Each structure stands twice: as C-alpha cells, then as structure tokens.
Amino acid sequence: MKAVFSGVMLFIATTVFSQEIRVHDPVAIKQGDTYYIFCTGRGISVFSSPDLKSWKNEPQVFTEEPIWADGVAANFNNHIWAPDITFHKGKYYLYYSVSAFAKNTSAIGLTINTTLDSKDPDYKWVDQGIIIQSIPNRDLWNAIDPNLVFDENNKPWLAFGSFWGGLKLVKLSEDLKAIAQPQEWHTIARRERSFDLADADPGDAFLEAPFIFKKGDWYYQFLSWDLCCRGEKSTYKVVVGRSKKVTGPYFDKIGKSLNEGEGTVIIEGNENWYGAGHNSTYTFDEKDYIIFHAYDANDNGSPKLKVSELEWDVEGWPALKDNVLD
Hints:
The protein is an all-beta fold. The chain contains one helix and 24 strands.
C-alpha cells in the first residue's frame, strides 16, 4: 500500500496471513530473525515475516524496470517473474526473469544487495544486467525461472527453463555474474514435445521452474508440471527426482529418468485448490520447508501462498508434512 502526504509518496506496510497472500512463484530466505519472500510482481513483490505465518508487504525491489528490460521484451512494464534469492559471501544475490508471455523472448538478470532490511541505510539493490538470454528461432530453451545452486566443490550453477526442449543447468563464473568459460550446459529434465511444432512455439512439453535442494548425499530436483496461471483451469503440480551429481541424471522414486518425462508427484491440486506448484525448498532452523503457490477454488482461482514442512521417508524421499491443501 502507498499513500501520498504533502506530495511525498509513503510506503505503508500491512500484515496478512499466509492463506491470504496472493503470490506467484515464491522464494524465501531468512536474515536474522526475519523471513523474506520474493515473488513475481511489479518490480518483484516482497513480504516479511517473523514466523512464516503472518506477513507484511515490503517495498518492491525495482521501483523502475531494469534499463535493459524493454530491449528484451518490448512494453515489459516492470512485471518481473520468478525471482531466486541466495546469500553468498556477505551479499544477497537476486536472480529474476524478464520475458514475453508464451515466448522465449526472455532473459535472466541479477541484482545484488548487502541487506534485505529496507530500513537499513546500506539497503540498495544494484543491478548487474543480463546473465542469460534466450532468443526465438535460435534457442530451443527459455531463460526464465532461475535457481542458483552450489555443488559439492562449491562451484555455482544456475538451473532454469520452461517448456521447449526442457530444463537446463549452466555453470556460472565464480562471481555469479556470467556464464563460466568454457561453457558447460546440461539438460536436467524434459518431457515429450510434438516434433512438428515451430521452434518459436513453447510447445506441449509442460514443465518449468526447477529448484535443486541438497540434502545428505543427494541433489533433489523439484519442478512443476502442467499449466499455471489459468485460475480454475490451472493444472500445476510438483514432481521430484534426485541425483548424486548436481548435473544429473535425475531419477524418480521408481528409477525413471526426469530426462525421459518421468518424476514422482508430491504436490497436486484438488477440489479446494485447482493446481499447486512453482516451489522452492529450504532448511530453516534444522527443519525443511517447501514453499509454493496454489490456486484457491474458493476465491476465483486466486494464487495463494503455501508453506509446509517436509518429511522424508526411510529411503530419503520427500512429502508434505502439513496438509496445507485441505
């Protein structure tokens, strides 16, 4: 909420509970005693919470769109998609997506801050520009939905992608600001795509939003299948596979490969929630959490925030501990 007083624009925080927060593509982080969520929205929407339950809105990251955005997607209007937040060597790295809808006219950018507390005098997001860009009729992949992950040697990788030829993983430079040279790319999940489609068509291989979570000796790749953003017609769901290497290959619970269109479903819609997906996964205070959005059947399909602890079976496979889709 904003208000105008004597010609000055003021930001006014309001507090709401998780089930009432309208979000798309939420990611989270904890600074001190405060949790922050970043999500798709005008200039990247931000919320803070002391307990992962009650939330207040915070200032958006970009008051004006990145100076390069319209050069990637004309008339972008500062509606930034699917951020990813990581604390690394004393700074917060926020990757984000600029894209035209249903096109791979897309790019992943990066902005950096030393604090997430907007009241801190050192609070300032400094944009680093484009990290990866996809271009129609050149690339059979889409530069959206970034997720930064470090391997067992602390080398950085960026997972990303949607539709087209599947989800990708690319090695980053040590400063996290560019693709590492020589370039190293991997496909980490894919589904069958009709062969007769034009390269510029996103196609019918419905998958997106990879998120890689390291637990024990395994890298778990969570990803979303099927369709988001369609209210009551949304069919989103979350599947998972795992690998001993960050580069894969990833296999589901019965040993089928994510590169062959397989995956173990752990979240899907029901009569109360039309679809649920685009998750992120974290360990906070020795508990594992999964955070995602779901489309509320009792509120015209509005996308709402969902937070659940994860539990793990004896073979090390995750499931929701809390029944947050009642």
